[in-house]
TrEMBL record:
It comes from the Bacteria. InterPro entries: Cupin_2, QDO-like, RmlC-like_jellyroll, RmlC_Cupin_sf. Residues 32-98 form the Cupin type-2 domain. This is Cupin domain-containing protein. Pfam families: Cupin_2 (PF07883).
Length: 144
């Protein structure tokens, strides 16, 4: 089973629990650690998978379509594919959530590809970041 930590170096850590290879592509499961003032993904939607978030620690500010809500420890939220969403940690404490994506088409390779762009030095290549998002089923949404 997967037990891989991907530290994006921007206040986000991804702890993969189960990747597609572990579940026969049924789902992926990973913990996201979001430090205060972390750089988070642009508002986006998924075109080929649903995502469920479960709060483990702290309070996550989550926007889904035009609804703004807080996800606390013990709370959960189902994000159906096609719904625009984004999140931030607006608190002074570290937030942890568990993310369940199904089917298992969203894998740790997305975060590894993003890490490659972030480690290239200088400002991130935003065109390349968008290309990576699209390759992995995330569709960025500008001005949301």
């Amino acid at each position: 089973m997967t037990n891989e930590v991907i530290d994006l170096g921007n206040g986000l850590e991804i702890h993969f629990c189960l990747d597609a290879a572990d579940t026969g592509a049924q789902f992926t499961l990973f913990k996201v650690v979001i430090h205060p003032n972390a750089k988070v993904p642009a508002a986006h939607y998924h075109d080929n998978f649903d995502e469920t978030l479960y709060g483990l620690k702290g309070t996550l500010s989550l926007t889904v379509d035009d609804q703004v809500l807080e996800l606390h420890a013990g709370d959960h939220y189902f994000i159906k594919r096609g719904r625009i969403h984004s999140f931030t940690n607006q608190s002074d404490e570290t937030v942890e959530i568990l993310a369940y994506a199904n089917p298992g088409v969203f894998t740790s390779n997305y975060f590894k590809d993003i890490l490659g762009v972030l480690k290239a030095g200088g400002p991130p290549d935003m065109a390349r970041m968008k290309q990576i998002m699209l390759q992995h089923g995330l569709v960025p949404v500008a001005n949301h």
